[in-house]
Specification:
heterodimer; A: two-stranded antiparallel sheet; B: 418 residues; alpha/beta; 13 helices; 31% helix; elongated
């Protein structure tokens, strides 16, 4: 190993004040009223660069610190069942609106005055963000009658009562026998199916049965207490990939894998395998969310040793906890400290790299802080040395008064640096701009590229009123009308598509790590290999970032390879013959289409899907029927499957 | 194969990593084997503005520009590298300061005919010596801003036309410079631009029809990646068949990526920007002598590949410009193992039929102790300056600020005014 002289850390950190834009903004090409072409997006990005300074002064979107905001009570209180029975009708009614693009029309709007009046309940004021003070953010819980533990205990799960009448109607809706043959490309999606598509890496027949038996609300509640879920699939992955199992021992990891590049590839493969096989699917989805939010690219030398620990001891276990705890753990993690140069930042040579991303990406967001805030935060976070992955040494900690936005501290002692730093992080975690940023990102992840302002406001309020706990926020999200109306609004990213294909195939954990690593790295051709986004902001989560031919080629290629068993070893038990539930009935293209769509979507084929399958199969075989179990039937099934995983219903989640 | 990072340097291995999956799908590892190690490539866009193609060759790992174009006239050069300096007597002396590495011999005729030039002491703002960070900054090419797309993708956004092969990575991996909203293709070779079932099981036209029926009425952002993929397959299928098969397997291995690029250029497929990665430059130990050493072999491999590429293009070389880039150069002084650690400033090679070649451009800062940047060659010319000149003079990009925000550029005069 060689040293990597960061010859002048301050120079490296000082990437100037132009931190204005990042992809959340620059990818926002979907506004129907503007030119959405990629070229226009490029031009916008560059133009924006020129305007950075002024844009940073963007007015703070009032988070309407209204914990008791009107309308909030209904969905949240109802969250005991998550999707209340009274909502079922509304869900169905809204599906059509969603198809009509209602969601896309959502745009940032002013917070209604009525919600602002509720501010007193949360103690928030209408003043500037930096006026937030302690009484606010330790705050007043509002009137949540939802579980106020960050992780519901077993009893709480039981309280998330499925008996809202939803159970039966949903079971019926997702039943294969449902006649769902609607002549539009976008099918109404049952509430249960929609939850499964958003909260997992891909529904399976087994998951549908689980939800049907326990109710979607209880299912989601249980998923948010992942430690209580038996996880044979995840255990098999841990067994297969020591890189995760031995995460807490970087030294051993090094000995295990020898070359760091091997270790890095192992982690990519393990991440892909975990997404495919863990029963704690929602946690894995949230892991992916936090992994982007707190991105530490695995390509860095140091992060190859510390990223496994980061994933196994911080991002996964704390995925559903308080954001404040997560933020503190991430900030003081070796992986993050090493990546953004907190290690080595001292009073003599403070490094602003981490402090800037802390404010811009991790918490309050662009436009909410000044350059002075960055410098002050950097000073407060000094004292970390880079040796051995980083440790605190008070003698290099800056001592003296600190002011970051509305946070002030005398910061008098060298030894107190860590504690004061935590207080700053706690302040930021409870800041209403952080609430707004996280609510936006969560809504973007789970609802729409352009999340409705109504939903963002609601989620931000829940977040602030619940001491930054994630479970209440996610509960509010999944029980919202906006969520229910958002069917097929989110494009699957390449990795998500490939994992969903594997899950639809019923693939089981394979025995060949190398084969899984190959698969993970093949996603690099689509620009989406696991953990490999190079910048601190994580993979973009909007469709406009994934419009390349490259993505189409890779997704098709991998889907074909998977069903043909070319990744045997990465996945096992892939047998195209098993995809047909009733081979005797699958004698026509239409019947094959129906059976495959039932497996893929929990419903029968749409008119478009049937037409397309018919076109494909008729052209090849020249005959319209297949005998059960014949090679012709299998071949037809393979082709139809590869086609149908490119149905809009499968390209989206 | 392939991952010939001599140093065991972790980041070098990442960048040049052997990708087993990629090889598998290549239908033959030939493309990546032999001298070149990993030829990863990606290319660019068509358009109606001009028919020029920019080929970016990424020398991943940190090419030693002080060997490729050796400052044999700088007394500190030989003194800093007592065992591994390119001896002045072996270099092809091109001016009082510089001599070309003897392994570049296949390119000497191009130098003499004005089709090959070098720029020395190029650098980037980021002072990092970390492969990962330096590469990320190089590909982002927007220091001091928070633009997070890559420069090649941004350039595609500035070109007219929307042909599907405007941005193609033949690298088997999408380079960071391709990140962004404009469509690109990333494959290990043109033979990968295909859909297996399409050729094996049903005619392409049938798949195309079925996909379009499947996608009828769906939102474009959901269906565009696939329709572009189908366009790409169609475009590649429409290319004239490869001429002859006289290329030996070895020659194919060296230049498969370049052979694909030449094929696209000659067919006027609309290719505007191509990107190839050639790995294996992270030479921390035993680079060997200027004749027969490991670095000499690598340089020779590149030289013969580029020379063959130029020959392959023939008169079409006039609408092609090739540049080399590397995330950083290497330290001036050799280390204790006959190798070179990570440095900063570097040289670029520029090849094409529209350049004022036969000359070393740039401002030489010197190698005397006081002139160095932490022991390394200082960067006196921003690498983006060289690219900017090509973009404005040959590619039809009006405002280079749209690609390189905030770059104050003064053309070096590499491109011939004609």
């Amino acid at each position: 190993m060689h040293a990597e002289p960061q010859s002048d850390p301050t120079a490296f950190a000082a990437k100037d004040g132009a931190d204005g834009e990042f992809d959340e903004i620059l990818w926002r090409a979907g506004n129907p009223s503007s030119d959405t072409s990629p070229r226009a997006a490029t031009r916008r990005e560059v133009r924006r660069t020129d305007r950075q300074v002024s844009s940073r002064r963007a007015v703070l979107l009032t988070a309407a610190g209204a914990a008791a905001a009107s309308g909030l009570g209904v969905p949240v209180a109802a969250a005991c069942g998550l999707i209340p029975s009274e909502n079922v009708a509304r869900v169905n009614a809204r599906v059509k609106e969603a198809v009509a693009g209602r969601m896309a029309a959502g745009s940032a709007t002013a917070v209604p005055a009525s919600t602002a009046t509720g501010a007193a309940a949360g103690g928030a004021t209408e003043g500037p963000a930096d006026e937030m003070n302690e009484p606010t953010w330790t705050g007043a819980g509002g009137e949540m009658d939802v579980a106020d533990d960050d992780v519901p205990a077993g009893d709480d799960v039981a309280e998330l009562d499925p008996s809202t009448g939803l159970l039966k109607s949903e079971a019926a809706e997702s039943s294969p026998s449902t006649p769902g043959d609607i002549p539009a490309v976008t099918m109404p999606i049952s509430a249960a199916e929609l939850v499964l598509r958003r909260a997992t890496f891909g529904p399976t027949p087994e998951l549908r049965a689980e939800v049907a038996s326990m109710g979607v609300g209880a299912w989601l509640g249980r998923q948010m207490a992942p430690e209580k879920i038996a996880d044979p699939g995840g255990d098999a992955v841990l067994k297969r990939f020591p890189v995760l199992a031995k995460a807490n021992d970087p030294g051993q990891l090094s000995a295990l894998h020898g070359r760091p590049s091997t270790l890095f590839a192992e982690l990519q493969g393990a991440t892909l395998a975990m997404a495919a096989h863990t029963s704690r699917q929602f946690r894995e989805v949230m892991f992916s969310f936090w992994s982007d939010h707190f991105n530490v690219p695995v390509g860095l030398t140091a992060s190859r040793y510390y990223r496994p620990l980061y994933d196994q001891e911080i991002l996964r276990p704390k995925a559903f906890g308080r954001f404040e705890d997560l933020l503190i753990a991430v900030t003081y993690s070796t992986a993050m400290m090493d990546y953004l140069n907190l290690s080595g930042s001292s009073k003599q040579a403070p490094n602003e790299n981490f402090a800037r991303e802390l404010l811009e990406l991790h918490t309050v967001g662009v436009g909410q802080y000044t350059e002075d805030d960055v410098k002050q935060a950097a000073l407060l976070l000094t004292g970390w040395k880079s040796a051995k992955g980083g440790y605190y040494r008070g003698s290099t900690h800056y001592v003296g008064p600190i002011k970051v936005m509305g946070f002030q501290h005398d910061n008098r002692s060298e030894d107190g640096g860590v504690q004061v730093g935590k207080q700053l992080l706690s302040y930021l975690a409870h800041h209403k701009s952080t609430a707004q940023l996280l609510a936006t990102k969560l809504a973007r992840r789970f609802v729409s590229d352009q999340p409705p302002a109504s939903l963002v406001t609601k989620l931000a309020d829940v977040y602030l009123a619940n001491d930054t706990k994630m479970v209440p926020v996610l509960t509010a999200l999944f029980s919202s009308e906006e969520f229910a109306a958002s069917g097929e609004a989110k494009l699957r990213r390449p990795m998500e598509h490939t994992v969903a294909v594997a899950r639809a195939l019923g693939a089981k954990p394979g025995s060949d790590r190398g084969a899984m690593i190959d698969l993970a790295q093949a996603l690099g051709r689509a620009g989406n290999a696991p953990l490999s986004w190079a910048a601190p902001d994580g993979y973009p989560d909007v469709a406009s970032a994934w419009q390349s031919a490259a993505q189409g080629l890779v997704q098709f290629d991998l889907a074909y390879d998977l069903i043909m068993g070319k990744h045997q070893g990465a996945f096992e038990d892939v047998d195209p013959g098993n995809l047909l539930r009733d081979k005797k009935a699958a004698t026509t293209p239409a019947a094959i289409a129906d059976q495959l769509c039932t497996r893929l979507f929990g419903r029968s084929a749409t008119a478009n899907e049937k037409t397309a399958v018919n076109t494909l199969l008729a052209a090849q075989s020249g005959k319209a029927t297949y005998s059960a179990g014949s090679p012709d039937q299998t071949k037809a099934c393979i082709k139809a499957f590869v086609l149908l995983v490119h149905s809009p219903s499968f390209l989206t989640r | 194969m392939t991952t010939t990072t001599e140093c065991g340097c972790a980041e070098g291995q990442l960048l040049n990593m052997s990708r087993r999956g990629m090889l598998k799908t290549l239908g033959g590892a030939a493309l990546f084997t032999a001298v070149m190690g990993d030829a990863e490539l990606a290319f660019g866009a068509p358009g109606t503005g001009t028919d020029h193609t920019l080929v970016t060759v990424m020398m991943a790992g940190g090419m030693d520009g002080l060997s490729v174009v050796a400052p044999v006239g700088d007394p500190a050069y030989a003194a800093s590298r007592p065992n591994i300096a390119v001896p002045a007597r072996l270099a092809k002396r091109v001016d009082p300061m510089f001599g070309l590495h003897p392994s570049l011999a296949p390119l000497f005729p191009l130098w003499e005919s004005g089709k090959l030039a070098a720029v020395h002491a190029v650098g980037q703002e980021s002072p990092t010596r970390s492969h990962f960070q330096a590469m990320n900054e190089l590909e982002r090419a927007a220091p001091g801003s928070s633009v997070r797309t890559g420069w090649l993708n941004r350039t595609l956004g500035m070109l007219p036309g929307d042909e599907v092969l405007q941005g193609v990575s033949l690298s088997g991996n999408m380079p960071g410079s391709f990140r962004g909203p404009n469509s690109t293709v990333a494959v290990g070779g043109l033979s990968e631009v295909r859909m297996p079932l399409i050729s094996d099981e049903a005619p392409f036209s049938t798949w195309r029809k079925a996909m379009s029926e499947l996608h009828a009425g769906a939102r474009p952002e959901v269906t565009t990646p696939m329709s572009r993929a189908l366009d790409a397959v169609e475009a590649v299928n429409a290319l004239p068949k490869r001429e002859g098969s006289n290329a030996t397997p070895r020659a194919r291995a060296n230049g498969g990526a370049f052979s694909d690029i030449a094929r696209l250029i000659k067919a006027r497929s609309g290719l505007r920007m191509a990107h190839v990665t050639i790995g294996g430059w992270d030479n921390h130990v035993n680079i060997g002598s200027a004749v027969g050493g490991s670095l000499a072999g690598r340089i020779g491999g590149v030289a013969s590949t580029l020379a063959k590429f130029a020959a392959d293009l023939g008169p079409d070389l006039s609408r092609v410009t090739v540049i080399t880039l590397s995330e950083f150069g290497r330290r001036v002084a050799e280390n204790g193992q006959g190798g070179l650690d990570h440095g900063h400033g570097n040289c670029m090679l520029v090849m094409g039929g529209s350049i004022n070649g036969g000359k070393v451009y740039g401002t030489w800062p010197g190698l005397a102790a006081g002139k160095l940047d932490h022991g390394d060659l200082a960067g006196t010319t921003d690498y983006r300056t060289v690219i900017a000149e090509i973009l404005t003079k040959k590619m039809g990009v009006g405002s280079v600020n749209s690609v390189f925000p905030g770059l104050a550029t003064r053309p070096l005069g590499i491109i011939r005014s004609s």
